[in-house]
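[step 3/7] fold_predict: job queued, chain A
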Amino acid sequence: MGYQLSRKTADEIFGRLKQDYDIFAPKLYPGEGCFSDTDVIRYGKVGSLDEIEWSKRSDYSFKEALLAVNEVLFYFTEKETRVPSCTDKKLLIFLRSCDLHAVKRLDAIYLNNGPEDFYYKRLREKARFVLMGCSETCGTGFCVSMGTNRTEEYDLYLKPEGELYRADCRLEELQRYFLTEEVSVCEAVPDYVRENKEKVTFPEKLSTETFSNPLWAEYGSRCIGCGRCNSVCPTCTCFTMQDITYRDNENAGERRRVWASCQVDGYTDIAGGNSFRKTQGEKMRFKVMHKIYDFEKRFGYPMCVGCGRCDEVCPEYISYVNIINRLAKEEG
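[step 4/7] structure written:
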């Protein structure tokens, strides 16, 4: 159901939502970028509509609202283990269409790829999603090519229009917040991107022979293995484990799940000093082929959603878009 409401009414509704939900949205962090005197847009808990960054794509994805960068799985002592409690509140996450499509990819890995992940599932069941429309394309995004530029799977759509807001509420759970005399019924259709500057042609005949293509060594020679592409990607799911023991008792501590990157040295090291992927070219090949070949063979759709963050963040200006287009040209 579509609504039109004033800024004052929107603030009042937001205040009521805060009582029942932890609200996460992209917000500007001045001076906290990777380089001196630079800003960064990333996800955090917001207390008002003014904190939300509406006009620019976030540098980091919504993923850290569902998957903490550093998450305690359990505490242990000599005699017992204890799983940390989960938040009592539900989650309300503001995100764009490409990122909402990424939720489907995370669900596939954590819920439909073997036994369900307990920690992801308990937060995922609490999550509700607010779609933020895109009136124009971002610089490196290619969501139109991926078919992720629009979605109907949102729970709430919210759009600021000067001193007014338009909303489309599809979840009965949220509709009660809009049932006030100050809200009028109107049409609210989400904005979506119709054309990107970047366009991708997906290769249709990839096979295991693609693994020997010389382009992997070419791009691998430029990659420094920093893992920034994985950190900003909304669909990367790799992690490592850390056991932390306390100084006052070495038999007590906590086990943590921490984001990891398939591009960094040591990620595929195993006992005996062996490693599955040693060169940067092999690591690059694994990442790309997993996004566009392995995942699709398993689930029926590509892992990549075309957000373009990886191209934006790479310090060596390696273009994922160019890699895919070259594969399409060379491999068919």
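[step 5/7] annotate
The longest strand covers residues 249-259.
Residues 280-299 form the longest helix (20 residues).
exit 0
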